[in-house]
Amino acid sequence: MDKRVAVITGAASGIGKGIAEKFASGGDHLLLVDINETELDQTRRKLLQEYPEVKVQVASGDLTSPEFVEQIVEQCKESFGTVTVLVNCAGIFPSTPFLRISRKEWSGVIDLNLSASFFLTQAIARLMIERKPENANIINITSAASEVARPGVAHYCSSKAGLKMLTQVLALELAPHQIRVNAVGPGLVETEALLNTLITEKAIEEHKEKVSFAPLNRTAKLSEIAAAVYFISSKEASYITGQNLLVDGGYSAGRVFKSFAAKGDEMS
């Protein structure tokens, strides 16, 4: 096939949906994966309406299930023959203080955010090695939390830091097969889910405080995260592997003190 084939997990909403829209706009065929069957079908219909020349398939299920991972691979073989790009975006973000995180909650976060990406990548990489698509690459969606610790999300930070290191190890192991492996780490992103939380004055104030931690002093647009992922997947990035590209408005670079920010306002 002339067009690329991209498998995108967590594609029913949020960042995953934004990435799917970007790839569709570039003319790539898609297999969209998510546990939310209703929203996943809505995303599929929207993309087919906007980009009728693109083939869009869906697979709904639990990524922590070995049987579902096998189903994804078989669907790729039957419908597309191969996979050019895998984007591991599915994940959860519960917030619980360390001393109250249960074994079940810890396992749930690690299983989906890290282990599911590991085993799906393993299965897709085997297919890539067998079929040898041009510019094959894998992109893990990490987070600024892979670099900067935050209280209340010990399991999330651990899963994203683990995904970052997995990215680096796989970049080494898959390089002989000409498969690139990178990660994109978003900061605070303006998703529909985030906007839906801003319903009280307290929530709005807390959100403003979080935004202020980033030197650029705003949230990222979905299109900005998707653009970074799309670039990393492209031929223009063909010599980039093993990297964790943080798209976080400078959050991970350090902190801007309010006194300095105030001086900046005076100068402007």
UniProtKB/TrEMBL annotation:
Alphabetic keyword roster: Oxidoreductase
Keyword Iron: no
Cross-referenced Gene3D superfamilies: NAD(P)-binding Rossmann-like Domain
Molecular function in Gene Ontology: oxidoreductase activity
Stored SMART domains: PKS_KR (SM00822)
Entry's EC annotation: 1.-.-.-
Domain Ketoreductase: 4-187
CDD domains tied to this protein: SDR_c (cd05233)
Top-level taxonomic group: Bacteria
Enzyme class label: oxidoreductase
Keyword Oxidoreductase: yes
Family: Belongs to the short-chain dehydrogenases/reductases (SDR) family.
Protein name listed in UniProt: SDR family oxidoreductase
Organism: Planococcus shenhongbingii
